[in-house]
Amino acid sequence: MTVLERFPHRLTLVTGHYGTGKTEFSVNLALALAEAGERAALADLDIVNPYFRSRERRELLEAAGVRLIATSQALADADVPALPAELHALLEDRTVRGVLDIGGDPSGARVLARYRPRIVKEDYRLLYVVNAARPEVRTAERSAEVLRAIETVTGLACTGLVNNTHLCGETTAEDIREGAALAEEVSRLTGIPVACHAAEARFLEALKDLDPFPMEIRMKKPWE
Amino acid sequence: MKREIWKGSEAIAEAAIRAGCRCFFGYPITPQNEIPEYMSLHMPQSGGVFVQAESELAAVNMVYGAAASGVRAMTSSSSPGVSLKQEGISYLAACQLPAVIVNVMRGGPGLGSIQPAQGDYFQATRGGGNGDYRTVVLAPANIQEAVDLTQEAFDIADQYRNPVVLLADGLIGQMMEPIVWKERTPRTLPEKTWAACGRGNRDHNNFITSLLIDAPSCEAHNLELHKKVLEMEKNECRWEEILLDDAEMVLVAYGTPSRVAQTAAENLRRQGIKAGVFRPITLWPYPYARLREIAALDRVKGFLTVEMSLGQMLDDVNLAVAERKPVKFYGRCGGKIPGVSEVERAVQEAWKEVK
Lengths: 224, 355
Hints:
The complex is a heterodimer of chains A (224) and B (355).
Chain A: H1 3-6, E1 11-16, H2 22-35, E2 40-45, H3 58-63, E3 67-69, H4 87-92, E4 97-102, H5 105-109, H6 111-119, E5 124-130, H7 140-154, E6 158-163, H8 173-190, E7 194-200, E8 213-215
Parallel strand pairs in A: 1-4, 1-5, 2-3, 2-4, 5-6, 6-7, 7-8
Helix pairs in contact in A: 7-8
Chain B: E1 4-7, H1 8-18, E2 23-26, H2 34-45, E3 49-52, H3 56-68, E4 73-77, H4 79-84, H5 86-94, E5 99-105, H6 121-125, E6 136-138, H7 143-160, E7 163-169, H8 170-174, E8 176-179, H9 215-235, E9 239-242, E10 249-252, H10 256-270, E11 275-280, E12 282-284, H11 288-296, E13 302-307, H12 313-321, E14 327-331, H13 340-354
Parallel strand pairs in B: 2-3, 2-4, 4-5, 5-7, 6-7, 10-11, 10-13, 13-14
Antiparallel strand pairs in B: 1-8, 6-12, 9-11
Helix pairs in contact in B: 1-2, 1-7, 3-5, 10-13, 11-12
């Protein structure tokens, strides 16, 4: 499947429990959209995490033609919960495809509530990222609970699950399959379809049957 | 064993709970907010007590109270917040109270930045508060080690009746890595007969104070404390040697810079420089003796200390090497992390001079 077939909506809102890999997925999705010839923008709306944020990849994104929407450079290293005014440009301009990288848990997703009246007028999809290696959300019940809590604070309905199970550099194909089983179980509990499985390119062959969305690790650690 | 992916700060919190910590008192500060956040949910579920104190001072003094009653207690903060706790740490050491203090370091001095740094090395290793005392300082370089050392910290604290500092830089607190929860063999520890937890059947009250107003008593007390310092120095020293077996150039680094140094050493070997990494795991007691042995080896031509500070651990490296070999330095500070290529360049420069 092409990226546009997988993610046909103009706005993709990426939510989940914190640490599930939302930022990695968001950066990869924005880059894939740009590569497919779309006018792509990535909005860093994470007000929870001080480190490992998509805005740290500004150079990479801009070189690939992705517009990065983030709080002003002056505040790039601060943890003030300020939101970029520029986000409105993304909401207004229907020629742009936007990926919104949202902070973890309901507390991080709360920023979306502020934009809800505008978002519901757009062609959007709210995704929920599942990672079976994250201890707090490794059961389908707990994962579904967090999902429902995110819907409650945002006032938006989730319509797709993303299996992004990984263990940093130690991920195996089996880990991703375990995540696929968890995503299916969350899907069964919630009635929300699995939108895709995300996997590094090295697993594409072993996981052919899952037709994964190919990822390249972009949020590397300083020594990697 | 099941591998899980954990963020450093939350892993430290969970490790403390699994080590039997039953009281956590803290005050929020970036980059370690996930510790109190995690504790606020999970400590009560584990039958323990979580209090968000009104300040760092209040938090460390609550730890003093809990520790005095014989309970395993912990507080956590980041650099400026840990400065505020120093008085309490001195009191804990004076009163021989076991406790664990976590410092997830950020840029300083003063309020500094919220990015990772190691500028609190002197404060952690030289005492920090007033008076003659030391704390064991454990410096993890990955999340698995942060978990293991956090659990170990409680045992060390109980064994010596002394505060133990877990000194992590911001990146260790904020990054995610896979870990396993290992089966631990706890140390055999003495009963806390000194705890002020009610008189019970004792024929005396347990009285805990750091006030020893007459000088001879205060000196005698200091000498007692010093015996423990010597014991800790003897027993608790830890380090790791990476690619050191044939190394001619030795990088010395702890925490995040040790990871950068390792990648740099691997790359340098491909360029023909036999580099290795000496990684202290305890910053106090410092592994002077082993480093001194390495400095005495003929094949070792020189050292490069890499820090996220401007030459603090460098003092200890110099004490160990004692001019047997040249010691060079590369550091970033204020929240900047040394890059792999920067460290490689620093080694190449040093190598030209020392080979």
